[in-house]
Amino acid sequence: MIISRTPYRISFFGGGTDYPGWYLKYGGQVLATTIDKYLYISCRYLPPFFEHRLRLVYSREENTQHANELVHPAAREVLKHVGIDNGLEIHYDGDLPGRSGLGSSSAFTVGLLNALYAYKGQMITKHHLATESIHIEQDLIKETVGSQDQVNAAYGGLNLIQFQPNSDILVKPVTISGKRIRILENNLMLFYTGIMRTAERVAKSYVKDIQAKKKQLVKMHAMVDEAIEILKGGDLDSFGLLLNETWKEKRSLSKLVSNTRVDEIYAAALSAGALGGKLSGAGGGGFLLLYVPLEKQPDVKEKLSHLLYVPFNFETNGSHIIFFAPQKRYTDEEEAYSRNSFESFLELDNT
User: Fold this and answer.
1) CATH code, residues 2-323
2) This model's pTM is above 0.85
3) For residue 130, what are the CA distances in angstroms to 75, 122, 143, 208?
């Protein structure tokens, strides 16, 4: 039995510049952190006493004979990528709902890849975990996704992630005092809008002609540097004001990034004392991140009392294996014998 734990992430600045259609020409960078809300993947050897040879349990249940029969695209391609076809049972559980803008899809890919390598007795570096997950999502599944979520999930922590035109990815931890980290954490609030959306649909609305969004993306790229300077020594309230500026730029990328309901929620938060904020992820719904000075937080909670408030802290570990228990596995010969015996038993039982 193997269990991996992979964090969700919050992206502050630079989202949009992490799409290869942009950074392979201009370069990109994001400022993001992982939080103490997690996605868990457990997998175990499946003994040969079942009619199915592969079981995947998430919001639905799939029982198949081979990996290529799975409907779930990430699970199917990860299993094929690591060379496991069957003989496995996999369960997915998350602290937060999917399709919510906190990188859950990539956390699943990273977490499953990490668990399956551990299942095979192989150690994989955070860099390879991130880059292989990017390859699986962008090249094998062919999803319209950026490259930051996989890196965040694999590495963990508060990082400046730089995407080079030569496709190199550099991860630079943002080193600031523990006191400033705590102040930043305390001034951030996360609310669930309840609006479910598919990030790929929102992203497709502006990624297809992303070169035409150069004006906005250049500004969003520059805001990353400004935000890091604020974190290192500036007035942290300026961080919140800058979040408001980057949200304005992001909203201009596509009419799908926001909507009337989100705009009303955001306006209400600002009227109650929030200095700035943004939808986490591609936009359209999911979680709303706000920067709110402590003395104003009761007012914001009251104003947004119809939404679910989610307290959180930053985390630094990234995806890792939290449980490993060896299982007795049948040899190929033993499994073939057991399968033949079991099938004979079923035939006898049906007569």
Assistant:
1) 3.30.230.120
2) yes
3) 16, 16, 16, 24
